[in-house]
């Protein structure tokens, strides 16, 4: 019984670490990418046009947000499949 708990706990820790890494990565991207996009596009792409630079920053923020949603959905799907596999292994061990 303790082996099953240890395996479940290890799988949960791996999922938690990947979720934490994704959160930290996308938080940093959300903080840095729009600001750098704004000033980069203000100085190099559209010199002096603050409206287009702001729209570029908004687009960058939305790209980061959509990326986070996709990664979160993929992680949720994989964790669901992992829990189903663990449940089926547990049931097969009970049948023995």
UniProtKB/TrEMBL annotation:
Assigned keywords, A-Z: Cytoplasmic vesicle, Endoplasmic reticulum, Membrane, Transmembrane, Transmembrane helix
Region (Disordered): 75-96
Signal peptide: none
Subcellular location as annotated: Endoplasmic reticulum membrane; Endoplasmic reticulum-Golgi intermediate compartment membrane; Cytoplasmic vesicle, COPII-coated vesicle membrane
Entries under Pfam families matching the protein: VMA21
Main location: endoplasmic reticulum
Membrane topology, from the record: Multi-pass membrane protein
Classification via InterPro entries: Vma21
A single BP term in Gene Ontology: vacuolar proton-transporting V-type ATPase complex assembly
Transmembrane segments: 20-40, 52-71
GO cellular component: endoplasmic reticulum membrane; endoplasmic reticulum-Golgi intermediate compartment membrane; ER to Golgi transport vesicle membrane
HAMAP family: VMA21
Family: Belongs to the VMA21 family.
Alphabetized PANTHER family for the sequence: VACUOLAR ATPASE ASSEMBLY INTEGRAL MEMBRANE PROTEIN VMA21
Protein's job: Required for the assembly of the V0 complex of the vacuolar ATPase (V-ATPase) in the endoplasmic reticulum.
Protein name: Uncharacterized protein
Taxonomic source organism: Sistotremastrum niveocremeum HHB9708
Lineage, uppermost ranks: Eukaryota, Fungi, Dikarya, Basidiomycota, Agaricomycotina
